[in-house]
Amino acid sequence: MGTLIPTLLAVAGLLALVSLLPPLARRLRLPYTVLLAAVGVALGVSRLWITGGGTAGELGPAGDFLTALSDLELSSSAFLYIFLPVLLFETALSVDVRRLLDDLWPVMILAVVAVVLCTIIAGLGMAGAWWVWKGTLGTHAIIVCLTLAAIVATTDPAAVVGIFRDLGAPRRLSILVEGESLFNDAAAIALFTLLLGMLTARGPAGSMAEADWAGAALSFLVKFFGGIAVGVLMGWLVGIIVTPLRNLPQSEISLTVSLAYLAFIIAERYLEVSGVVAVVTAGLVIASEGRTRISPESWEGLRNVWGQLGFWANSLIFLLASMLIPPTLMEAQWGHMLLLAALVVCALLARALVIYGMLPGLTAIGAADRISGPYKAVMLWGGLRGAVSLALALAVTENRRVPEPTQEMVAVVATGFVLFTLFVQGTTLRPLIRLVGLNRLSPVEEALRNRAFGLSLSRVRQDVETIARDFHINPAPAVAPLLERGAALAQEQIDLDERHGGLSLDDRVYIGLSTLARREEELYLTLFRDGVISRRTVQSLVANAGRLQDGVKAARREGYEGAARKEVKLSRGLRRALWVQRRLGADRYLALKLSERFAQLVVVRIVVEGLKRFTDELLAPMLGRDAATTLTEVLQTRQAAVQEALDALRLQYPAYVEEVQVRYLTRAALRVEERTMRRLFDEAIISREILADLERDLRRRRTQVEEPPRLDLGLSTTELIGRVPLFAGLAPDRLGRIERLLRPSLAMPGEVLVRRGERGDSMYFISSGAVAVTLPGLAQPVRLGSGDFFGELALLDDRPRNADVVALAYCRLLVLDRRDFHRLLDEDADLRGHVEEIAAARRLPSAG
Asked: What is the Cα–Cα distance from 73 to 559, expressed in whole angstroms?
């Protein structure tokens, strides 16, 4: 108990202090982390005063707080194991994974390659300064310099992203910086661990040739990619575990907290791969899958909880690490300053080489979008370092196998470099962003802002006038400023149009399609939150909406329409299910995929109809009637294709379609019922006991309709044979032999069943449905329907197929392979005669 109360006082006092710093940083217009570092240094000076004999007894609780701080000691392991998993997981959880994937290559170049390049260039630069300082240079000195360079190779996005948010900098710039920080933390710490191991293993003696650089490089790759594997696996497992915990927010949130620490500890301590990489990857997996696996109510709470945990961790680690700066700098020597100068210059040079040298190369080969000059300038100067670098430097100073002079040098230089990035780069980053104009909107964005704000003012005016009528108040004093602002906006838009020629129709359609694609994703998530669609369905639909966004970004209207056409085509999963059914005769997987397809098509149809209303009500006033007309045409074309695919399913499986539609309505009704019960409870009409009883009954009924009904594909061989006239009237024993040879199969609309020129290995009997046979020399395809067969010519003549056969609708087929075909004809002369008669007639127009 002797140290417990002072420790609690120190931590509680620090938390109270950090709660006051964000508004102060906003008032002073400083990055929050810069102010944290300054306060930490001030607390560090107070610790020196206390430990130097200063008396704090006269200050009361404040003095006890300073005394508790002076006695508070945290090791580097505490920094890394307590704070780092929270920091990394929280940052990964807040990243827009889809936007990150758009710029994955630039992010990985900035993260991994930049870390390695910074370590090499800055390390060799400091080695040169070491030689100037000491007059000698050996393996130990070079490894020390490389270790120090790896310590400062990791960047801290907190200050930079905070400035971006305040100034309204482009979202893509924030994504690049956040993504870089996530992965370069992982790469830098993995590299630092390797170099520190080499440093402590070798000692001060040795030659450069004796260092196992190849082994170190291989070990780095193993640790990095091993960490990715661990993170993916653990994130996936937690995703599976958390799904049954829906609507239990305490359990769902607790599971993610345990994931952050377990991923770090299991990877680092038990599997000896990078725990940092594992935490980052697990966080990204949860960020990507969490919105659909975790209950919607819990997801917002989870984000809030992790935001709070991240704020505490970032603030405490910065303060506690910054408190170590004053005693560290007291050990500074002129040689340390020489190394620091070399580090600053070489680190900036290495970063410039990556940003201005390697990223344009990725753009040239099409692996990444172009990054503009202003972006590059801000990314170069915005590579701030923070608490992670200080914690890694602390790990070196605590290692008894590192010589004491080396410990002092690493601590001073790393601390000096962090201070330079925070107090020089951090304080000048805001003016730099203004200088290069990244805080200003483009003409297109200005025009869109003016139109959106003008629409908003019109609605505000209507609402104000309504309120004034209700309260019998004269609306003129409140409406007059709105009218003035509207007139100013109109004049601003006229001036903008005169300077830039206004927005073209193509630009407005592009803006509209981008808006529609993002709106579509939100509508899918809303339907999921309302319990109307399942997790599996929303995952697929959100991915489709992402592809629409990518299509607009890549090729505007053509890209959007291309992505829309793909959503009605057969998915990979459905094609895989078809393959399984045809090879193994397993119907259940195919039935599941068909039911998923129907669910997706129904929801897309509903959402597209909503998007048409959204276009008419909101986008038309903003973008103009001509642009809205074009957008509506695109949506109508898309809706027609979806409806055609739905009609084909409904025609084939009418009873199933009816059952699914009933379940959709039932799930929606249950959601409304749940909200009504909650409202009755909130209004004190029913008690908590009644609410609990009603909710139990609701959960029971929801379980009954959660899973879609089972789809009967109707692929019973006996039933299918009965629909083929060729087999009608056969004796039961002959029919039984034929049934054993035939294999049922389902064909999708538009599926190519036979290709001209390929080797024929099967004959097909059509039990239901229709196909089109395209023969060379014929102007129109030949249509075959129920009772017909095709594919026999290639088997009779033993030559390649002479036609293309495409399914026009859902077709139930009976398939007979080559060997069984010849066996069947040998056994049944009547069947052979009928098949050969049809085949002879088909040879006439096509010469075979």
From this structure: 58
d(CA 798, CA 764): 16
Q: Which residues make Cβ contacts (< 8 Å) with residue 463, sequence separation at least 6? A: none
**φ and ψ at residue 486, rounded to 5 degrees:** -65, -40
Q: Which domain holds residue 470?
A: 443-500
**Segment 654-698, tens digit of pLDDT:** 777 777 777 777 777 777 877 788 888 887 788 878 877 777 887
Torsions phi, psi of 249, nearest 5? -60, -35
Residue 81 and residue 43 in one domain: no
Domain co-membership, 395 together with 296: yes
Q: Which two tokens stand for residue 231?
A: 């993170």
**Distance from chain centroid for Cα 204:** 46
Kindly compute the dihedral angle of the four CA atoms of residues 722, 724, 726, 732, in this order, to the nearest 10 degrees.
-10
Contacts of 689 (CB under 8 A, 6+ apart): none
CA–CA dist 376, 391 (Å, integer)? 28
Burial of 303 (0-12, 13-18, 19+ CB in 10 A): middle
User: CA 264 from chain center: how many Å?
Assistant: 21
Handedness of CA 733, 736, 737, 738 (dihedral sign): positive
The number of helix segments (H) and strand segments (E) in the chain equals 37, 8
pTM over 0.85: no
Count of structural domains, the chain: 5
Q: How far apart are CA 416 and CA 410, in angstroms?
A: 10
Query: Model confidence over 20-34: pLDDT tens digits?
Result: 888 888 888 777 777
